[in-house]
Amino acid sequence: MKLASKPLVLAAIFCGIATTATAKEYRGWNTHPPDYPVSVALDRFSELVAERTDNRITLTNYHSAQLGEGEFATEQLQFGALDYGIFSTAPMVNTVKELGVASLPYVFKSPEHQFRVMEGEVGADIATAMNEANMVPLSWFASGSRSFYANEPLNTVEDIAGLKFRVQNSDINVAMVEALGANATPLPFGEVFTALQSGVVDGAENNWPSYESTRHFEVAKYYILDEHTIVPEGIIFAKTTWDTFSAEDQETIRTAAQEAAIYQRELWAAREAESRKIVEEAGSIIVAVDDKTPFSDAMQPVYEQFASDPVIADLLKRIQATD
Questions:
Q1: Is the four-CA dihedral 203, 209, 215, 217 of positive or negative sign?
Q2: Nearest in space to 312 (alpha carbons), one of 129, 93, 100, 131
Q3: Helix (H) or strand (E) run with residue 41 in it
Q4: What domains are there in the chain, each with its CATH number?
Q5: From which domain of life does this come (predicted)?
Q6: Kindly report the CA angle at 229 between 132 and 124, in degrees rounded to 5?
Q7: Which residues does 290 contact at the CB level (< 8 Å), separation at least 6?
């Protein structure tokens, strides 16, 4: 048997090395436009990973829901068709019941309280449950508190009753709106402006930057600061993708994700202030809520329905005990 010449052997070896070292591209989903704080921070995350792996791992972000709307993208992540992305946990509640506790109205005292919970022992237990659904959370971004807005005046909890509100496709969100006497209409995020404009819905609920960046304030200028939910949102990988990385690469990616989260929170604070100024100058009517008791009291049926499970009840108790 004739042996290959030494140059050919070396060429084969170097070819193998080159193949091994070739960068692999991973696709990341994001619903927000490129200049949004979430998007800017997600791009920073990709840059950090590329730098620290010598471009061996390429994380390509597709902003503005280019890879599909939220519910579809969430399903794709669960099935491993997407590698990672920035996801709100609200649409995942129907898949990971433990996430339901984080979507309960008024469960978090503030965004800072939410971070302490999600980055602590409670968050670790929730992450374990997410792993079983093929999801690995790496860091948590600021997503602001969500409040109601509509195309007619909202001054009290009574004004919400009877209106049609767009909500994320989550049983808890539907129950929350119905507990206030309103009609819940789950719709993809990208369809909300047209739905408001055409009267399919009377209002929606979201944070300052989303209310402003989507131009929803142009068709729904009444905004009441009830701040009912502070829903976790962060960088989440498909576990099937995550498990392909070495332990060293996992640590590199996780660290980059956490650094990106700190950066995003700084951007978010500035964007919230800017967004509020924009909508106020455009004529939006902002109503502060000094006493949220009427809102929280109306949520008792929601707690009875979604916090009766022993697992959820225990998580809720631990969240309430977290300073």
A1: positive
A2: 100
A3: helix 37-52
A4: 23-142+232-274 (3.40.190.170), 146-230+277-321 (3.40.190.170)
A5: Bacteria
A6: 30
A7: none
Q: What is the H or E stretch that residue 152 is in?
A: none
What is the pLDDT, as a whole number, of residue 109?
84
CA atoms within 13 A on the CB side of 45: 34
Cα separation, 26 vs 207, whole angstroms: 29
Condensed to tens digits (0 to 9), the pLDDT of residues 235-262 reads 999 999 999 999 999 999 999 999 999 9
Question: How far apart are alpha carbons 38 and 267 in whole angstroms?
Answer: 8
Rounded Cα gap, residues 261 and 274, in angstroms: 20
* Cβ(190)–Cβ(67) below 8 Å: no
321 Cβ contact list (under 8 Å, min separation 6): none
Q: Which two tokens stand for residue 170?
A: 């989550």
**What does the pLDDT look like over 75-117, one tens digit per residue?**
999 999 999 999 999 888 888 999 989 989 989 988 899 999 9
DSSP state of 31: -
Tens of pLDDT, residues 117-142: 999 999 999 999 999 999 999 999 99
**In sequence order, what are the residues at sequence separation of 6 or more whose Cβ sits closer than 8 angstroms to the Cβ of residue 203?**
148, 149, 150, 151, 154, 163, 164, 165, 166, 196, 220, 222
